[in-house]
Write a structure and sequence with these properties.
The chain has one domain (6-161): P-loop containing nucleotide triphosphate hydrolases (Rossmann fold), CATH 3.40.50.300. Helices cover 47% and strands 17% of the residues. The chain has helices at 18-29, 36-43, 51-74, 88-99, 114-127, 137-144, and strands at residues 6-12, 32-35, 79-84, 104-110, 158-161. The chain is globular and about 45 Å long. InterPro entries: P-loop_NTPase. GO terms for molecular function: ATP binding. This is ATP-binding protein.
Length: 165
């Protein structure tokens, strides 16, 4: 039986460093990196102006991405998904992607405090001014209200980082 790829995905509050960590894992694992932000910007340019817009377009993207990722995993290539796995429902979707093709998975949980995340968001506003309208404390608070930390009963292989590593 041929070796399947491993699916790597990330959980962490807004500003925790999911995108930065995903790029590093993709390099370390010689994996294909898929960025939700890049796909959404390419497919729906200038159409995402609110969190509700993001939820709508993200949902439209998921069926296509799921099949695509499963095809990549099936040929033995690791996949790093820079898509948030910040609720139980979303994590279940990632787990289905891997389990439906019998691939392994790794959830990387960036367990940072609100203060750590807000500091990183402030830094990101400076480094990426095009994101400044969305990267605000108000949006952080709104998005964080939906955040659910992963639990052991979800059946996930979880690797935790606290930002102090």
């Amino acid at each position: 039986m041929k070796q399947l790829g491993t699916l790597y995905f990330f959980c962490g509050k807004m500003g925790a460093g999911k995108s930065t960590k995903s790029k590093q894992v993709a390099i370390d694992k010689h994996a294909v990196l898929l960025s939700e932000d890049e796909w959404l910007e390419s497919l729906y340019p200038k159409q995402i102006t609110s969190f509700d817009d993001y939820l709508k377009f993200s949902a439209q993207l998921k069926p296509l991405v799921k099949k695509h990722v499963q095809n990549i995993l099936s040929v033995g290539t690791d996949v790093v998904m820079d898509f948030p796995a910040n609720t139980q429902k979303l994590r279940k979707w990632f787990l289905e992607i891997a389990s439906e093709v019998n691939a392994n998975h790794q959830l990387i949980f960036l367990n940072l405090t609100n203060e750590q995340c807000l500091r990183q968001i402030a830094q990101r506003r400076i480094e990426q001014p095009e994101r400044a309208a969305f990267d605000t404390e108000a949006v952080f608070i709104q998005v964080t209200n939906y955040f659910e930390a992963p639990e052991s009963y979800e059946g996930l292989n979880i690797l935790v980082f606290t930002g102090k590593e």
